[in-house]
């Protein structure tokens, strides 16, 4: 059983003082004996439950590296964008100009990645996102951008295979938050299931709203076998709650942006039961994926007092890719970026190797199900079976 625990929320509280204004380890930029690597994402906002785990994973990797007393130490500095593109842009400019970061882990979300990509590209600073899955990010021609998670085209193909195979759905209704990530994922899901002969409906909602009765009524009239929400858990929880309270009996499903216990809190435990989730992340608390995953899960629990959660492994792997560059003597942004082209290693979550466009070469998608207060791994999308 893979579990995303409530301790993530407590971790968020404990992290507030350290991350609100940026900074963890102190120091700035590069030098003869140190370099600074940044981390950017929503660390105090309503979707921080998706970002604190990869931040912690990255911190663990860097702490392990520095504990070896290397010739060049790594300063780790965090930047809280709250997932907002308008906050991310000035933060990344400051990180480059004032803190002299040589690389950035993040941004975590796709919208802020779209906004900061051109800035990082112009400055020649490499970035490795643990969680930004928008398809178009890899189509910009950026040379300094990378991610360690499969994109939404891969996720949609895997989810569609599960929806039409295991769930045998004939009608699917997609809902999205009208944002870069959410709409992109929902549109890709609709296209993928349509290609398999499924009838679809769709609706965009305001992610700041609290009443989705109009959308709920349209869904009930359409009477789909599955409702798939593209966006983050804060809205998914509210939507799923209102669907269940309105009597909808079909399957509810969402993507990687909802793999957090905040989904259960938002929907209510009863309403959340059986909710399905697709993700390019492998949340392996038991270490069944191999020795690297087992060692990581044990070290993570020892350090943070909680099991690994969504994107914990991806944060660790993103940091590890940059650490390997520093270990190889690459301490400026350009040489680190060149080294990333050659990286290939068994990560805590999956094999890490970048395609020419910076995307991850690995294509696996995993399916999870809410069972009680746990988010349980059902398996690879090709083999997963819903329990109910």
Please characterize this protein's 3D structure.
With 388 residues, this protein is of the alpha/beta class. The protein folds into 2 domains: 7-150 and 284-353, Response regulator (Rossmann fold), CATH 3.40.50; 152-279 and 366-380, 3-Layer(aba) Sandwich (Rossmann fold), CATH 3.40.50. It has helices at 7-19, 52-66, 85-97, 110-123, 152-164, 180-194, 213-222, 233-245, 261-267, 269-272, 291-304, 312-327, 333-340; strands at 34-41, 73-80, 103-105, 127-129, 145-147, 171-176, 199-204, 226-230, 251-254, 276-279, 344-346, 351-353, 366-371, 374-380. The strands form 3 sheets. It has a 7-stranded mixed sheet with strand order 7-6-8-9-10-13-14, sandwiched between helices. The protein has a 5-stranded parallel sheet with strand order 2-1-3-4-5, sandwiched between helices. It is globular, with a radius of gyration of 20 Å. It starts with 6 loop residues before the first helix and ends in an 8-residue tail after the last strand. Mean pLDDT is 91; it is low at 1-22.
């Amino acid at each position: 059983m893979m579990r995303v625990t409530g301790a993530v929320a407590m971790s968020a509280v404990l992290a507030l003082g350290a991350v609100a204004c940026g900074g963890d380890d102190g120091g700035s930029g590069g030098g003869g004996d140190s370099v600074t690597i940044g981390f950017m994402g929503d660390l105090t906002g309503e979707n921080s439950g998706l970002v604190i785990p990869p931040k912690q994973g990255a911190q663990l990797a860097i702490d392990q590296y520095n504990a070896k007393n290397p010739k060049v130490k790594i300063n780790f500095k965090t930047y809280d964008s709250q997932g907002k593109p308008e906050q991310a842009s000035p933060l990344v400019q400051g990180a480059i100009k004032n803190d002299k970061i040589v690389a950035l882990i993040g941004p975590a979300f796709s919208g802020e990645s779209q906004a900061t990509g051109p800035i990082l590209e112009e400055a020649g600073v490499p970035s490795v996102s643990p969680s930004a899955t928008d398809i178009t990010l890899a189509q910009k021609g950026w040379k300094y951008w990378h991610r360690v998670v499969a994109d939404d085209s891969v996720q949609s193909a895997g989810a569609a295979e599960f929806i039409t195979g295991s769930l045998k759905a004939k009608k699917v209704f997609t809902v999205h938050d009208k944002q870069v990530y959410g709409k992109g994922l929902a549109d890709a899901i609709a296209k993928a299931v349509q290609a398999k002969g499924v009838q679809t409906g769709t609706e965009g909602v305001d992610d700041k709203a609290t009443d989705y009765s109009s959308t709920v009524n349209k869904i009930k009239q359409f009477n789909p076998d599955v409702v798939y929400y593209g966006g983050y858990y804060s809205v998914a929880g509210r939507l799923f709650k209102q669907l269940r309270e309105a009597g909808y009996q079909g399957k509810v499903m969402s993507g990687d942006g909802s793999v957090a216990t905040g989904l259960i809190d938002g929907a209510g435990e009863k309403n959340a039961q059986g909710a399905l989730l697709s993700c390019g992340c492998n949340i392996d608390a038991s270490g069944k994926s191999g020795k690297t995953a087992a060692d990581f899960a044990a070290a993570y629990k020892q350090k943070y007092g909680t099991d690994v959660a969504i994107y914990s492994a991806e944060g660790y792997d993103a940091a590890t890719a940059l650490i390997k560059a520093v270990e190889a003597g690459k301490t400026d942004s350009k040489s680190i970026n060149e080294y990333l082209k050659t990286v290939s290693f068994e990560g805590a979550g999956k094999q890490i190797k970048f395609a020419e466009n910076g995307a991850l070469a690995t294509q696996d998608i995993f399916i999870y199900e809410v069972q009680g207060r746990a988010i349980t791994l059902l398996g690879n999308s090709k083999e997963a079976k819903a329990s109910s």
